[in-house]
From TrEMBL:
Residues 1-28 form the signal peptide. GO terms for biological process: proteolysis. This is Insulinase family protein. Belongs to the peptidase M16 family. InterPro entries: Metalloenz_LuxS/M16, Pept_M16_N, Peptidase_M16, Peptidase_M16_C.
Length: 1010
């Protein structure tokens, strides 16, 4: 696990408190930047007092039929036209309002000729509407400070379409304008023939980019499990034929049928008076009238058993799915009809008992796998899927072609749970885990994000249930946990693993390995219950673990000059940044940075780098193996995420004050007292080997596998290991590589959050202060900066997926290091301008790619290695278009600077992102990490807001000249096997500059949205 994926970490670095950064010096590059003004506020029209808030003493619409105590922070309303709303005041982050509009219509509401219409309509709502001209939605929301794709988005599921808007820097006028624009999108989309013609290729591009082996197998699994129901064939993305046949008239018919007030719920949560939010909703949604009479929702169908099936073993449809490049996976499920329930306390108590029953089984299945079982993983779960079925699913990954053995092993563990009640020790462990989750939710109640609260209401409406406050959930659980009996858990298990029908699907890479009938027979075969993986009671406690060493001595304790953060240095060289604060009650963020990261490895370590990401933590520490590590944290809020960055390794976790000392021990013990259990390494090898071929099934997979290395001139340290490299790796080799790395390089600990300073310092003395002195990094490590490949050529790789899928990448080298960090921030502005232009060229105008993206990576822990990368997934014939357009945009930026409007569309969202992100401890942690090694980071923090929100066209033009001017980008094309760039029908004037280079080795219905 990683705390933030490498690709996302750059975005996390975007962003300090406006209070600290009110006065910003100019960016010292070419000229002093002028501030980009925020959109001018206009006076908001007077909003009349809301008339339709449900009065006290009445049951709000979401709680009808429920005895769950109402969360009084929500204010509910219901208008005469049928629109329902929920509003709430919330200041996380400050100044933001999150709005959700949910339409009760998804892909299950479509006729056969309308497959994909709900999703296509979602796109068209953004295309043009009552108050927004053609293609004006994205730039308009950007000017208001909302980032497209994260702050402004939508998604279509089988049961609903949800429009999402997170508005920063809200005021009365901005709320009024935004609610007006949003209501115009919902109530008055244009839906012209031009709109449909423009949006169709974008939707087809999205469909194409998400297709391939993984999607084919998922579709076939869904068709099998939900055989006979609409869900089997109604994926939100639709079909090429129905999307191609869509017309303005047919789309309007779907819109008129389902986009109606009585099918609409509006949710608004944010840093404003709830009555003001309610008034804005009533003003703009209150007069909406549907056309014609309401249409009843269609029947989604119910799962049924085949005629004559044995009621005790009602095995229905089974399917064997052959996909040569996918790893083996087997899924089987018990299905029961979905029925709307009264969301009562008793009902929720039953749900909690079911969760406990499943958690006990999952713990046993994982224990069995760790002990060298026949499967890589196995998991059980229960869900009410798309109001179509109540389903208990079992998924597993056989390690070999002997899938019957893997299935028998999993079924044997479940059979024991069905036959015999759990032990008290097992129950106590899972009860403690749930207790911690609910207690933490109460402790962190004041820092619940408004966007999350809004989504909670939308999800509750979707499943036809209510919402409960964290206090209510904890109270319900506290009131029942001491009354839970082994028999109750046994009853839950028996109910969960029974039902109307059982169905199964097996995905295998090998033809002839299994048949549908063999899979059916395997499910009907009797199995012997296996109790060997039940929890063995072995007391494990931190009190009995060995000490890290003699408590350390503090040699420095001084403020760093930012807020109340202080730096503490220990005599052994460990350095700590400490910031106790109450900004996020109940949360403590801990990060440990050490060593040299990717620089520390040799070119021959490729396999051990990948295995380290998966197995280093699980290989144990002190006297604890992987099972002990799980057990010792039972009922605690603790974590152990591990990541490798360009210039450092890191451990990270979210914890709380009462668990902080033990969390620090876990991290320090991994450095001081590592164990080298072979089992996690062997399991990681199996996982990496099984996954290898799957990367070749699509352009996205090849990008994920190869791009990091290729952009660094083929550096093997960043490469995914080959099967031969994985086969040659051993647990002994793993220890040989990793053991010295845990002892090398500077050590920095960051502890930010709600904790007691003196107690934290005492814990740090006993842990990181008690470590032996660190060994220095090898002398040549600092010079191991990755190279950039030669530009001017096109590297061509191949995938084994669909023949209409390709990907293209073009990149330019930039830089790295702390000294250039201010330039890197301005470069982010230029990159976002590039991104908007590429989106317009490839998606909006050409319809060639659904989600082209331009990103900037500027490593701060090494002096180099950065790049600007533009990439897109598209059809093979459109690869030359992408290269031509990306090149054109790059060179245009060197000839003519961005317009004031272009800069405003970028800097305003960045400005707002800074303001929102700076309210959390993780923001400050990311900005200040590494500052004990290079204190310049502290000084550069003071200019961050200005660096991201202030610039000039001249600075942008100078940066474009520096990085793009007269330079050809390095190019990568990923096309289907059997094709060449020359064989793909390219448009006239396209780039034919291609030299092929073969790679070293070939390698349920989900929502879709914008």
């Amino acid at each position: 696990m990683t705390f933030l994926p490498r690709a996302q970490r750059r975005l996390a670095l975007l962003l300090p408190s406006a209070a600290l950064l009110l006065s910003q010096p100019g960016v010292a590059q070419t000229a002093k930047p002028a501030a980009v003004p925020a959109p001018a506020a206009t006076a908001a029209p007077d909003l009349p007092a809301p008339k339709y808030i449900q009065p006290a003493g009445t049951t709000p619409w979401i709680y009808r039929g429920s005895d769950v105590p109402q969360d009084k922070e929500w204010v509910f309303g219901e208008m005469p036209n049928g629109v329902r709303y929920a509003v709430r005041k919330n200041g996380v982050p400050p100044g933001q309002v999150s709005i959700r509009v949910r339409i009760d219509a998804g892909s299950l509401y479509e006729k056969p000729s309308e497959r994909g219409y709900a999703h296509l309509l979602e796109h068209l709502v953004f295309r043009e509407s009552k108050y927004l001209g053609f293609a004006q939605a994205i730039p308009t929301w950007q000017r208001l400070g909302a980032t497209f794709g994260s702050d402004t988005n939508a998604q279509t599921s089988p049961t609903s379409t949800v429009f999402q808007l997170d508005l920063p820097n809200i005021d009365d006028a901005k709320l009024d304008e935004s609610m007006k624009l949003l209501s115009g999108m919902i109530e008055g989309p244009t839906l012209s023939e031009r709109d449909v013609t423009t949006e169709r290729p974008i939707v087809l591009a999205e469909k194409r980019e998400n297709s391939g082996a993984a999607q084919r197998s998922a579709d076939k699994i869904r068709e099998t499990l939900f055989n006979g129901q609409l869900l089997a064939s109604r994926t939100p993305i639709g079909t090429d034929a129905t999307i191609d046949a869509a017309t303005s008239k047919s789309i309007k018919a779907f819109y008129n049928r389902w986009y109606r007030p009585e099918n609409t719920v509006v949710v608004a949560v944010g840093d404003m008076d709830p009555k003001l939010l309610a008034a804005a909703i009533e003003k703009y949604f209150g007069e909406w009238k549907g056309k014609g009479r309401p249409t009843p929702a269609p029947s989604f169908g119910e799962p049924t058993a085949p005629a004559g099936a044995d009621p005790a073993h009602p095995v229905g449809k089974t399917a064997v799915i052959v996909e040569p490049d996918l790893p083996r996976t087997l899924t089987y499920a018990w299905l029961r009809p979905w029925h709307k329930v009264n969301d009562t306390i008793a009902y929720n108590q039953g749900i909690l008992r079911d969760q406990l029953a499943l958690a006990i089984i999952n713990r046993r299945l994982e224990t069995h796998a760790r002990a060298g079982g026949s499967y890589l993983y196995a998991q059980v779960g229960q869900d009410k899927v798309s109001r179509s079925a109540d389903i208990t699913s079992v998924s597993l990954a056989p390690l070999t072609g002997d899938w019957q053995k893997s299935l028998d092993d999993v079924r044997s563990v479940i059979a024991d749970a069905r036959d015999n009640p759990p032990s008290k020790a097992e129950m106590d462990r899972e009860i403690a885990e749930l207790q911690q989750v609910f207690q933490s939710a109460v402790a962190e109640r004041s820092v619940q994000a408004g966007s999350k609260l809004a989504d909670d209401i939308v999800n509750a409406v979707d499943i036809r249930e209510s919402v409960a406050s964290p206090e209510t959930v904890l109270k319900v659980f506290d009131g029942m946990k001491d009354t839970i009996t082994p028999k109750q858990i046994l009853d839950s298990t028996r109910r969960l693993f029974s039902g109307t029908v059982m169905r199964a699907a097996y995905v295998t890479p090998k033809q002839g390995e299994a048949t549908d009938e063999q899979l059916r027979d395997a499910l009907l075969a009797k199995v012997k219950p296996d109790a060997s993986s039940r929890l063995s009671v072995k007391p494990v406690s931190f009190a009995k673990l060995p000490a890290i060493g003699k408590p350390g001595t503090i040699v420095k304790d001084a403020p760093i000059g930012v807020l109340d953060i202080e730096q503490i240095n220990f005599a052994n060289g460990a350095k700590v940044l400490l910031w106790p604060n109450d900004a996020e009650p109940g949360r403590v963020s801990v990060k440990v940075r050490f060593g040299g990261g990717y620089r520390s490895f040799s070119p021959n370590d490729t396999a051990y780098i990948a295995l380290g990401k998966m197995a280093l933590v699980g290989s144990g520490e002190a006297t604890l193996n992987q099972d002990d590590l799980d057990q010792i944290s039972t009922g605690r809020k603790m974590g152990f995420n591990f990541d490798i960055d360009d210039g450092t390794f890191s451990f990270s976790a979210q914890t709380r004050q009462e668990d902080l000392a033990d969390q620090l021990y876990l991290f320090a013990a991994k450095l001081a007292l590592p164990q080298w259990d072979k089992a996690p390494v062997i399991r990681a090898k199996a996982a990496a080997t099984l996954a290898y071929d799957s990367y070749s099934t699509s352009p996205a997979g090849v990008l994920s596998r190869d791009l990091d290395s290729l952009e660094r001139n083929g550096d093997p340290r960043y490469a995914y290991p080959t099967k031969a490299q994985l086969a040659a790796a051993t647990p002994e080799g793993f220890e040989k590589v990793w053991a010295p790395l845990l002892k090398q390089g500077p050590l920095e600990v960051l502890v930010f959050g709600d904790f007691k300073r003196d107690e934290a310092i005492e814990a740090l003395k006993k842990t990181f202060g008690a470590l032996p002195p660190r060994q220095p990094l090898p002398a040549d490590v600092a010079a191991r900066v990755p190279d950039f490949p030669d530009s001017g050529k096109t590297v061509v790789l191949h995938h084994r997926g669909d023949p209409n899928q390709a990907a293209a990448v073009i990149a330019w080298p930039t830089g790295g290091g702390v000294s250039g960090i201010r330039e890197s921030r301005q470069l982010e502005i230029l990159t976002q301008v590039f991104n908007n232009r590429l989106l317009d060229a490839m998606r909006e105008k050409a319809g060639a790619s659904y989600s082209p993206v331009v990103r900037s990576d500027w490593p701060t822990d090494i002096n180099g290695g950065g790049n600007i990368t533009a990439l897109a997934q598209l059809q093979p014939k459109d690869v030359p278009i992408f290269f031509r357009e990306a090149d054109r945009i790059a060179q245009d930026l060197t000839k003519a600077p961005p317009t004031a409007d272009e800069l405003e569309r970028v800097t305003e969202p960045l400005r707002q992102y800074v303001s929102r992100a700076s309210t959390g401890n993780l923001f400050w942690l990311y900005q200040l990490e590494g500052s004990t090694v290079d204190p310049r980071r502290i000084a550069y923090l003071r200019t961050l807001l200005g660096d991201y929100s202030q610039t000039t066209p001249q600075i942008m033009e100078a940066l474009a000249h520096k990085y793009f001017g007269g330079k050809q980008g390095w190019r990568l094309a990923i096309i289907p096997e059997g094709q060449t760039l020359a064989s793909a029908p390219a448009p006239s004037g396209s780039d034919g500059d291609a030299s092929t280079k073969q790679p070293a080795a070939k390698a349920s219905a989900k929502p879709v949205g914008r």
